[in-house]
Each structure stands twice: as structure tokens, then as C-alpha cells.
Design brief:
The protein has 335 residues and is α/β, with parallel strands linked by helices. It has one domain: Luciferase-like domain (TIM Barrel, Alpha-Beta Barrel), CATH 3.20.20.30. The chain has an 8-stranded parallel barrel, surrounded by 6 helices. It has a two-stranded antiparallel sheet with strand order 5-6. The chain has 13 helices and 11 strands. Helix 6 links the parallel strand 7 (170-174) and strand 8 (189-192). It is globular.
Length: 335
Amino acid sequence: MKLSAFTIVDGFPPGTDPARSRLREVVDLARAAERAGLHGLWTAEHHFQPSGLCPHPPALLAACGEVTRKLRLGSMVSVLPLHDPVAIAEQYAVVDQLLGGRLNFGVGSGYIPTELEGFGVDPKSKRERFDAGLATILAAWRGEEVRSPVPGASAVRLNVQPVQRPHPPIWIAVQRKAAIPYVARAGASAALIPYATVGSLGELGEAIREYRRSGPAPHGEVAVAVHIYVGDRPALARTALQRYLDGRLATYSTFYRQKVNADPTAASARQIEETGLALLGSSEEVRRRLDEYEALGVDEILGILDFGGLPPPEVDASIRGYGRIRSPEAAPAPG
């Protein structure tokens, strides 16, 4: 099982020092992730609210590529219904070129009403826009003529192609169990966010089994995003996790709010930790819990390490401990 990092680039807690640059911290996180021997770093796309401060992942991933040489770098996700798919195909082709073929391309249809409304997207149309957008992007990366959905647009071919052929690996974020067969049949890998969508490791395991038996994705993988803190101050991390969860609820994040409405304890950091959907503790404690995920068939853990306003020194120490879980010789302390 591969160990990676995933950042929402959340701006919590409110009142965080305005001189603190969360985007620059992500570049530092990428540098630390490579030093720690992690497999990859993924970043989310969010707009118009403080729970996610990266509206343009291609720029941030390119910056992370300049301070790394081996780390896979990915979008989790590019929200396709918000954008012109021809522009997205161009932008991420440039990123893969700059990264020398290290891009992972994660996509999704969006789930925060403020974002869809801000771009004038009717939520009822997002699935259709997602399907059409992804088809256009893949056709563009195959070198075919494509056409923007903008009225009056001409057919075009990209003048820059990704390094990876026929295209960078594709991941589709899944927040509803009903969508899992669609992802598998599309031949894409699946990314799951259990804290927001399931209530236990048992439910997560069933979702993974559903993906495996739905085919035809023989080479598809399952990535799972989990809040992780490795260190001797779990109480500090628990407080930060609670701030993070409170902030996600404030965005009216559709699937997480539905989960909390059905079970109010899902808004509790301690409850999420007790169900194994957040891993906070010593390296040995976190290692034991990660073994449970591996037994479920998870291929890649997307460790959310910089959540809820955790100070950068705590994040840096945590990522070193996280890296040593699989590579004990990696990530020596600075200096």
C-alpha cells in the first residue's frame, strides 16, 4: 500500500495569521513529502470559501514540481462541470510536461452548492457536464479534434500533449456508493473520502469490494483519504480535526452534511477517530491502523496531514513520522 499526502488547503481556524501563506505551505509540504519517501501529493480544488484555498490546482502542482523530482503530483479533484474541458486538457497537459510525466489526474463533479452556483452550474446538469467534459479531455489527449462547449467554438487539436501516454492515470472521486460501478466500468481508479460518506471501516471495505467486482478496471486502484497525525501531541491534532470538521459543515458540503444529519456523532473528531476513519497517535498506533486499511484492499492512503490550522512544524514532524512507517530509513530529522 502506497502512502501519499493529500491537502484540502483549508484556511482554518478563523483568525489564522494573515501572513501565513497556505499555498506556500503546500509547496513546503511537497518538499517534505518527497524527503519523507512518500509516493505522492494530491491537492483539492475549491472556490469562494475558506475551507479550501486552491482554486487553480495546475499552478500549485507546477510549483510543487519545481521542488520535487520523484513525487507523483495529483489533482483530487479537478471539478469538471465548472470548466471548459478543452482548457482543462491544455492546462494539465502543460503540467504533465513540466513534471516530466508525474501527473495523476483526479476528477469529480463537485458537491458544494456555493461553488456550483458561483459558476452558474445547475446541480441537475453536473453529471452530464462531467461525462461530456471527461470524454472531451481524453479525446484531446489522444490527439483528436475536440470542440469547446462554448457556442460558436471551432474544432481544435491541442498543441501540447501530456508526457504520459495515452494519458495520465485517471481517478474519479466517489462520494456515493451508487457511483462506484460507474467508476469501475469506466476503467478509472477510485478515490474515497470515508470520513464524509461512511460510518465504519466495514462500510469502507464493502465499497472497495463493490469497486473490485464491478469491472472492467483490472488495473484500477482505490485511494482513500484519511486524516493522519503521527506524533506525541494527539490532543492538539484532535482539536485541529474538530476545527476542520466544523469548517466543512459550514460550507454545506453535501455528502458530509447528509451524513451528519443522519448521525450527529459524525461531526465529532473523537467519534471519527474511534471508528478508525482518522488516525492520530504514535507511529506504532498509526501503523497498526494502516494495516487495517491495507487488509481492506486499499492501494493508496491519501494522508490529510495539514488540517485545521496545525502549525507547520507539527505538520513537518508528522509527515516525517508518517514516512518512516513504510521506510524507516527515510525522513531524518532536519539538521
